[in-house]
Design brief:
Elements: H1 6-21, H2 30-37, H3 41-52, H4 56-74, H5 79-85, H6 91-102, H7 106-110, E1 148-153, E2 156-164, H8 171-181, E3 194-198, E4 211-218, E5 229-233, E6 236-244, H9 250-265, E7 275-278, E8 291-297
Antiparallel strand pairs: 1-6, 2-4, 2-5, 3-4, 3-7, 6-8, 7-8
Helix pairs in contact: 1-2, 1-9, 2-3, 3-9, 4-5
Amino acid sequence: MKPATRSFYEDALQRVIERILTNLDESPQLGDLAAAAGLSPFHFHRIFRGMVGETPLEFSRRLRMERAAWRLAHTSAAVTEIAFDAGYEAHEAFTRAFRLIYNTSPSGFRDKTRPRIEIATGCGVHYRADGSSAAFVPRDTGGQNMEVAIKDMPAMRVATVPHVGPYNQINDAFGKLGAIAGPAGLFRRPEAAMVGIYYDDPQTTPSDELRSEAGLRVADDLVLPAGLETHRLAAGRYACTLHVGPYEQLGDVWARFLGEWLPKSGHHIRPGASFELYLNDPTQVATPELRTEIYQPIA
């Protein structure tokens, strides 16, 4: 497969942005937008948020609010009608949201001379009454210069305990994993390393439906004790970056990794599970010293 260039991702997201702009009255559907971009919903959402600086839903809501402001300034449409078109079912809710953004009520905004319509954003895309769209500016908060290694990885066998629910509760699964693997001596084996495998985007999946696995790298010939399942991470080429610090920051690291570094890299995501490899024990080292490698399969 020919490696993707940065323009592949820019072009894909430009198509999605234009689709949202021309369908502002519709709530953006993640699956449809991902299909338009030619990406899986999981990767699409992370890449969109990383490159644009907003989720598709946040992007659409901002544009709707800018459209509402434009209509207040340039038409005589009733505030209730404008509120409904902006996605609000009640005048009061629209007024509260509008005041938080524009520091005035809708009627006060309407009375201003040449009020500013645009809401601050880093991507450069705003509502335009003529339906045109500007090319968006990919966000860069330092992610384009991340230190990333390209590794040809062998297949990895992982002993796992599944977890369904908020990702910040996966410690329960790791606790169960430790209670089984510890007495069996698996942590003392030379290949042992803790692995987290995550299947859903927490920005788009209800927290009680998020799927993940707490895992431990094990040898291919090891007989697993009861209570552990086997997951095989496929061999192949991976992009890998190291995060040093709290696990709570990993979501932001993933956003920069896929939304800023990847589009610049010339690499293309390939099918396969992305995962985190935890290099030290949070019970043995201070939080600022935690070391986590994150891996993304690439073509």
